[in-house]
Batch of 2 targets.
Target 1
Amino acid sequence: MKTILIADDEPNIVISLEYLLQREGYRVEVARDGDEALQAFQRQVPDLVLLDVMMPRLSGYDVCQKIRENAAWSGTRIVMLTARGREIEVAKGLALGADAYITKPFSTQDLLTQVRAQLER
Amino acid sequence: MVAQRLVALFVLGCLLFSYPLLSLFNTGGTLWGIPLLYVYLFGAWGALIALMVLVVERSR
Amino acid sequence: MLLAGGILLTSFAYLGILFAIAYYGDKRADAGRSIIANPTIYALSMAVYATSWTFYGSVGRAAASGVGFLPIYLGPTLMAALWWLVLRKMIRISKVNRITSIADFIAARYGKSAMLGGLVTVIAVIGIIPYIALQLKAVSASFLILLQYPAVVMPPKGHPVVLWQDTALYVALLLAAFTVLFGTRHLDATERHEGMVAAIAFESLVKLLAFLAVGVFVTFGLYGGFADLFEHAAQLPRATQLLTLGGPAGTYGSWIGLILLSMLSILFLPRQFQISVVENVNENHLSKAVWLFPLYLFAINIFVLPITFAGLMHFHSGQVDADTFVLTLPMAHGREALALFAFIGGLSAATGMVIVETIALSTMICNDLVMPVLLRWQARRLSERSDLSGLLLGIRRGAIVVLMMLGYVYYRAAGEAYALVSIGLVSFAAVAQFAPAMLGGMYWKQGTHTGAFSGLTLGFALWAYTLLLPSFAKSGWLPISFIQQGPLGIEWLKPLSLFGLNGLDDISHSLFWSLLANVGGYVTVSLLGRPSIREHAQALLFVDVFRTTRRRSNPWRGSASLQDMLTLVGRFLGPQRAEEAFAGYAASRGAKSLREIEPDAELVRFAETQLAGAIGASSARVMLASVVKEEPLSMDEVLNILDEASQLITYSHQLEQKSQQLEAATSELRAANERLKELDRMKDDFISTVTHELRTPLTSIRAFSEILQSDPRLTLAKREEFIGIIVKESERLSRLINQVLDLSKLESGRAEWHSAELDLRDVIEDSVSTTQPLLREHGVELTLDLPERAPRLRVDRDRLKQVMLNLISNAVKFCDRRDGRIAIALHVLPEALRVDVRDNGTGIDPADHETIFEKFRQVGDTLTEKPQGTGLGLPISRQIIEHFGGTLWVESARGQGATFSFTLPLHPQVAQGTASPASEMTA
């Protein structure tokens, strides 16, 4: 069973994502901000992390960068979530090492498809 | 210094040959048989020149 | 018994001696061992002031007006005392600026104006012609008289003499030839004629000795000394009259006038300027001249009255012209040798004047009249000629001849009518016109070119009108009614009593009017205008000459070939003299030959001065410029450029101002642009933040909606939970949208306001009751502190309630979890009402006091829990409060709770935005 880490500060979004992913059969971990996300990595390296960009304290970009800096975590897929869809932000995310980028509001189908695809690589 | 003294002599000259002094000697009298005005004019003139000599040569 | 031949022989012999002296003097000068570098010679040469007017005319005048002959010599004596100041300055100025004539002086001072130079030359020529005529008259008359020896017969008067029988004509021609030979053998850059000066000094001695000889003869030979002579003279009825002033001796007025006139003449007669300034070898010679020259005048005048009285006593009235006593007295007493000596003395006096005067005038005519005209119109033809020195000399020689001929013409036309002295005084009055321009130029920096021009023109015009024309009228060339009744019968324009001024003799009258107009014109016009840059620079050079240093800086750019300059100078001075001059220059710079000298600014300057001496400064500049590549920037060029530059400066000042304004505008624009970009950024930020904020609830809504839609296996509980979330997020979304729109409207001023007069206490109570459920939900205790009475305010009720609700809900959010307490208080201030909303929460860090009022910023950004608000409440509240002229702020510290306060002024100054007509509701 694959482990997915959800890192987002919006509780309701977390609930929705949690429900969706669990329904799909993934094990879900939750983090409310960047620090919590990194701590979760320390406990157990997830197979995929859904990373919200706009988070207090440590932003999604920083977390992404930190994940990629760590060789031990290089197997984790990073999917960034954001309400901002500007090209430059997408490019920045991908340049920092994210594997995919999903804009909110997202279609649940799209999200699940993307997650599956990333985990099969 | 010389210049100032010479200017003073100039002023003196103007005075010597001005109306008041001239009229003083403008009588028909004579001095040593020579008409007064004549004596005065040449005398004053000569004296003025002498003073100029003094001023200039003394400063050398 | 004295044959014409004898007289002629003696005369020519004398002239020969003069020539020899001049020749020797020049030779010694060329060899560098000048014989005239001697203050005594200098002073003696100045005695060229005494012409045949002095020699013959003084006696003539004394016979008519007694001591009235004397002022003409007192004046120069007085001026000599001032020489040390005035003349020395003139000499210094002229040396420094390479000035070679009066015309040059005036032209140079007033901006190197060729026009002024020309005008001065014309005035000088016209003014001096009568004076030259006077000398001709004296020589020819004395010759004719001596011819009759031993009979004393006056030359026939009144009969028009046939031209080729006119002695005067031959005298004129002879003198012209002599002068040409004498003074124009070559051109000298400094315009100095050492030989001439030596000869003139010699002549001064001769005439003095001759006069003294006659004087001594008369006083001690014919009588027993002064006393004896005057005693005898007293028997003459006229004698006493002549010995006092006020009678025919002349009034005091004319006495003063003549003194003044002669004071000016000793400076401004062209021959005096030539001798005392141009020919001056050493400034220090002046100190001796200061007393030696007056002494000379004293000596030559001391016997005038004795000779006069002797003559009056000897020759019965009318028989013999008093003008001739100096000659006729010895003749009448059979003293042949003495008479001849006297004649030579008179000849000496006349030739001295003519030589120096015509040379000075011809220099002016050549440099300041002819050359500028030639250069302007014939510049190309001139530059093609290989040797211009011949041209220059030719011009000068021609000028001398023309001057002599003009003198002769005047003599024929008007010479008979006047005694010698009167003619001379006419010339004195003419050159007196130079005084304002020259003295002003030396001492007054404000004098301008136009001023000098006006003064000179006016003075000259009045001189001509009051003296020259009347002289023609008295000789019959103009109708006598011109004098007696005025032109066209206009009385007050009578030339001899202009505007009704009577009581002055002709000369003083003319002097008064001409100088008045001259000085008046000069000063007024100068003060009305401003000196140009060049004029001002020249003024400084002149007026401050004793203070300025010798060396003048010469910014120079360009190259010139040595050979070119040599050739150019050679064309004017003659190749040989040019070579010599340049060789001398090379030696002075320590080089062995001219080839070693680098063509530089100094060399160009040297070439320029050499040329200037020959053709005048301005012409020299033009010629040199044609030779030197890339015109050298001499001080002149600089001034030229500065002149134009001064115009440009005015323009550029205006431009500068405009460009400053432009710059100011640009920087303003730039600042505005920055602000706009900032706003843009803020707007972008705002938009992206708003987008983010909007999308976040949307995400939940969509996600849950899709879940609900797609998942049939959802439990009811889950369904309810999810729908609940959808609803909440929808609410959140719409709240957010509303607030964003609200804030946007408030900020842009498009919000609607419905203000009415109301009691704030009502609003507060209303808000409290609205929030009761919230308070109860969180278990928060609220206390109200409202005063008994409160003034009414004109505000928008709903908006104010919005503010209160916001503050209260914030307080609820942040007050203590367990023991939440909120206190609301209303205070009445002198000019406003204040409301405080205090909570007992954890407080807000002072650093965040302002940030919480920013859009989308909430307290708790740093906390782990994401707060539920939109982050727009406080900004909106602030907008509302500020709209009514109040302020909203917070006071708080960590752990001390927070107090949000706002004030509302009772009488707001600014208009409360747009109030719709519906706002006239009563509370």
Note: Helices of chain A lie at 11-24, 34-43, 60-69, 87-96, 108-120.
Target 2
Amino acid sequence: MSDPRDNVQQEFLAEAQELVEALSRDLLLLDEAYHRDERVEPALINEIFRSVHTLKGIAGMFGYRHVGTVAHALEDLLDDLRLGRAAVGQELLDVLFDSVERFQRLLALDDPQSPGEDASVHEYIAAIRSVGMEPQAEIGDPLDKYNIEAEVLAVLTEYEEHRLRACIREGLLLYRLRAAFDLAAIDDSIESLRDDAQSDAEIITYLPSMEGGNEDTIELVVLLASGVSHEELRTKFESRYGTIEPIEERTHLPTLPPQATSIPAAPPSMRAHTEDESAQASLRSVADSVRVDIRKLDHLMNVVGELALVRSAVNRVVDGLQGDSIYRQSMMDLDRIGRSFERQLSELRTGILDVRMVPLGQVFNKLARIVRQSARDNDKQVRLVVTGADTEVDKLIVEELTDPLMHLVRNAIDHGIEPSSDRELAHKRSEGTLALNAYHKGSNVVIEVEDDGGGMNAHKLRETALARGLLGAEASQELSRQDMLNLVFLPGLSTSKEVTDMSGRGVGMDVVKTNILRMGGMISIASEEEIGTKITITLPITLAIIRTLIVTIASRTFALPITAVREAIPYVPSEVRSIQGREVITVRGETLAICDLARVFGLRGPSEREGSFVVVGSMGNRELGFVVDDLHGQEDVIIKSLGKSLSSVRGFAGATDIGDQKVALVLDAPALFAEYFDGPEIVPTLETRP
Amino acid sequence: MSFHALIVDDSSAVRAFVRASLEDAGFARVQEAETGFEALRLLASNTFDVVIVDVNMPDINGLELLAFMKKSPRQQAARRILISTQVDGPDSKRGLQLGADAFLQKPFEVEQLRSLVRELLEGVEEASS
Amino acid sequence: MSPGTVRATATLAPDPTSETGAVPVLAVCAGEEVYGFPLSSVREILVPPPIALVPRAPDAVLGVISVRGQIITLLDLPKMLHLELEQVNPYGRVLLIDNGDELIGVAVDSVIQVYRMEPNHIEYASAMSAELSDYVVGIGRIPARDQDAEPEMLILIDPVSLLGG
């Protein structure tokens, strides 16, 4: 019999990954609360404890020894924290944050028991232990104060008991809420009870009772602790849930000990949501979701594509029968059925694409940790503001975006935001702000990374580019301010050694741009000295399916994504003029540069027949007219990538089936634009293959 | 064997593991519950031969579930296994008083689970649910 | 197949049923030469579907084809080996070869058959010109297809070298 663990390994890894992500999110919230001197919700610490506890449990069962050992040590620390034996501090937080990367690395190991990791794991565990605990004196048992049935105490876990004691110590009163719930809808009912209770009471535990229940309903006794009056609680809960009675205090109490200093004088107020909390809520949202392997989705999309081809084939058969009137009725039926089929197919396609979509919050989460780390490394104060984390984007895009965004965020903190002392001198808030914003715009998604730092010095960029030989002296004279800022995207503009020389940005903006272009997107930069810098990335929402304009170039069929097309006009060769070596035409009084793709692609000689149409492409604020032979209407196509073998060929976003096993290449508008405006790339042949 | 089993644990990996272990050993029907609430629902409408419960779950914990089962006529015959991280800790002691028949300490092996279940079901007729 | 493995041994998976460690090789005809691919790397043999030209792709790339929804790069083998020979168009068959990373299509005139080649009857490429040895594992001999003629030379190709690895 095979080891059941083999099949379930994937299940473990997926769950472990989720737990680590949840841990990361919660740690950020904890960090935030601590730094703002806010009350740390016990529920939050308990959540963090639970994540680590569960991780420890499953790691042990699936042979991930190192993960289990680290989780165990962390669990002890977190237990101290949640049972009040230790307090939150900077060192403790740092140790906790360290765990996220460690877990991720340990989970990714080929050999989860690898002895090579022993040393590093030991070191970390020592660090965890050294953060240690400060024992608090336990004077008398607060539980003695109340008449709680032994039955109830018997089913409380250690933690629930601790929360009970903590609440009593804080001066809260205990209540019993009896409520009957419909078994079928119990999850929702409990959630709404939780939400209702949140501002006034802490729910210690839910006890199912056998009285008053039947097949469809169950009665629960909910144990609550609250600082609010009985009357208020009754008004709030009795109409919707059930009776709420205080738990009687013992008539003769043991002499109460003097209160220890750690207890606050008045019951702490349970805060309503503040602005920051709701901004954080977008980081916190955990979708109810099913984990999906994206390759399965790709396969499904292929099947949908094949179905579309089947539909075309059926169409052709119907067309073939056109003449015979005997079949007229059947053909009309078939046609109607065909259209219905097509509608369903379209629904299916949309549905599958939708499944691929994930919220950008996933990436923003990782970035939040980087912001925190970078800020500490650079000794700078940075406040992160995130909006639009629930903006959805194709999963593949999210994966590709992570690196470029990490880069931009690090740059913003390393070079953009000034040290607090400098900021104060400039009359700015001593805390710098980094804003991440995402929203949908048409069929694109826009992501903005903005900082209120020192901005970039356009002239200095030009000087550096000149000095590095990346720019000719003459060309440098003709640059607009925006052109100068765009120099930051040139490869070779800076090296990490010369970071201080740089006017504002560091390594690798050229790499970021290449990555964005490769995804079919655009990136632009805006910056004002002293005020700040904003980088805007525009991407198609999904890479998978695109509406395209079908064209012929030198008798071959190509597809051009419609998002890049503004309009198509007839091409009149005699109207072409030449300005500074570029061919242009005039459209409604405006000059438009044109590009003969047949020539660019080497498909046509200079003396051969010209094209008949100009497709006016538009990307960002640039426009370029593509000369083509013919237009063939719009088609929704599924873009398939060209193999790795052709990854060095520029100008094509992929290819697509257009029926009858024929293939049309899909043009990569951003790349063609970049090539035209920013200079041609070297076309590799097999000789220059790396 | 066509015994009917219920696994209650908030970890999907553990549930998958228990399911795979039991199904491979011939259990025809294994049901899963992620929360105490879901378990209550299932316990109200099914009769189980074996119920495996994790003690540490949020909201309704394993102990509370055991307390409920103790009072439920439908589940009188069900064998109860409590999973916890410390077999000799206070949670387990309470579990014993609440009717647990056996304990499993995490992490546990496939064989441990199987032999424990086999032992508990020795001589028991298959339930007619 | 991972890049960096020693080519000659990695691509020649011996026939498990053979006592001598003979390697099954699929022999094909392309542009007047006979080429061979380790059978283990040949995934499929197709009738050539319509080919879409890819502008600016390396010379040896004829274009791309669609096979059950997957876009596959199609190579002209003699061109890739820089042998100045004319490839006859239309091609008779397309081989789908697994180069370790993806499937690559190779256009050929015709498929001959599968031969079992003994490793010690193969003259390995290291003994030949440097240029060829990028793609070629070695030269082997197969029985002549015409009777009475000499055994023919078969150029054994390394699948990993096909635009991949």
Note: The beta strands of chain B are 4-8, 29-33, 50-54, 79-84, 102-105.
